Task: structure prediction
Amino acid sequence: MTARRAAIVGVAESDIGRTPHLTVLSQQALAARAALAEAGLTRDTVDAVFTAGEWSWAPAMTLAEYVGIQPRYTDSTNIGGSSFEAHAGHAAAAIEAGLIDVALITYGSTQRTGRSRDTARPAELTAQFELPYGLPMPVGAYALAARRHMHQYGTTGEDLAQVAVAARQWARLNPRALLRDPITTGDVLDSPMICDPLHKLDCCLVTDGGGAVVIAAEDRWPDVATEPVVILGHGETHTHASIPSMPDLTVTGAAQSGPAALKMAGATVDDIDVAEIYDSFTITVLLTLESLGFCPPGEAKDFVAGGRTAPGGEFPMNTNGGGLACTHPGMYGIFLLIEAVRQLRGDFAWARQVPDAELALVHGTGGVLSSAATVILGTL
Amino acid sequence: MKPVPDADTKPYWDGIAAGELRLQRCAACGRAVFYPRAVCPHCFGGPLGWFTAAGTGRIYSYTVVHRGFGDFAGQVPFTVALVDLDEGARMMTRIVGTGDVEVGMRVRMTVRPVAGADLPCFRPAPEAAEAAEAAEKAEAAEAAEEAD
Result:
């Protein structure tokens, strides 16, 4: 008997950018309704809810109450921005185990309008060894990783800047992206220094926004209105919580989650047609490409050079403009899944559509390079 | 911003108040442990005993903060680093006494006030200053030779 497969059958975002007319809950509810409507499924078919966020002590419970769902499976796993890739894996596993039929993953944040990022936490437990030093988080942690990578491999600020340049080139093709004007590496290096070596344009946006993803077991696929995008493989891990405890500042948990997901999917990095890789900072992308095995350690700067990841390049990556240029409401991972699904469905016109995209790799990074979750998606 | 000592960490902060860097060592596997805790994160055993470290180490990475927040906004630029202590543990800290910092630089602990809290910070170790001086002299000698 073959394993019961899971596929993403509905995706939607709420309004993104600045959403003073929405709350964290209304963002998620409206996105959920749109994603279910796209799938042609009703709210009452949903039997599992997944969400993550600091807006409630029990976010899945609050979200389910708001939209009127009583689930038989629930998951509020919060490992930062990669939570939603992990949720997709958990939903696929629950479907395969026969526990659920239809899963709803949601995310929402009003961090820009609400300015919730600026709230100080007490220096308790493990934070007592970090917060008193005043390193801005998370950017300071990523700056430490960037500096170590520069020391070990000779990576330069110019190398990091290439990631930001490519992001803008994709954003130019996305009417929903926030920053659509092209930039040069010089523009990145001229932007204000935040935490050396990371400049402002090395850092993701700070926006509001939400999204929803609906996943269905294969016996439900005949009912859905979209072309199912199959979850072929998934993997997750976390290596640390605070940056002083990161075992090696140049290697992330993608080194475990990526191979695990690819193995489950029966694929290799060479089979991937399009990649959506969490870009909280330019350095995040370089580290992830190396840790996933797309290139040897230290060589991601060569991998992204010459427009390889930009529109028209050999390795289309972050095709919506990413967290650097499209949107980044704090925990960005759900948007990676949404974009990958649309690429595999062939939803886009012209240069934004990766031609004949059949296999996508989606990788979320959360915390301070702390968590990693990889999902391999494929057309039916 | 003051750290909140707890049952695991009070001996550490008592040490800092006395000007000392105290770490734990696992009796089962012999490795140094930081931050302090009840079980060894390496071998999961113990018991964990306290010892006073030399206070010396090497910079593993650093960043110069140009935009600070809250209590720290007015302090920029300041340098935060991860230091690998000679005993084998890694900690976050500030580098003080210089803006000229390099990965791999030898450093030595000194307790300093940071936004109202006395914290272990690190300054360039005398060995580091000597090495820098020697390197400068060598460069000057080379330049003098070429000029002749």
About this structure: The mean pLDDT of chain B is 93. The beta strands of chain B are 22-26, 32-33, 48-52, 56-65, 78-85, 90-95, 106-114, 117-124.
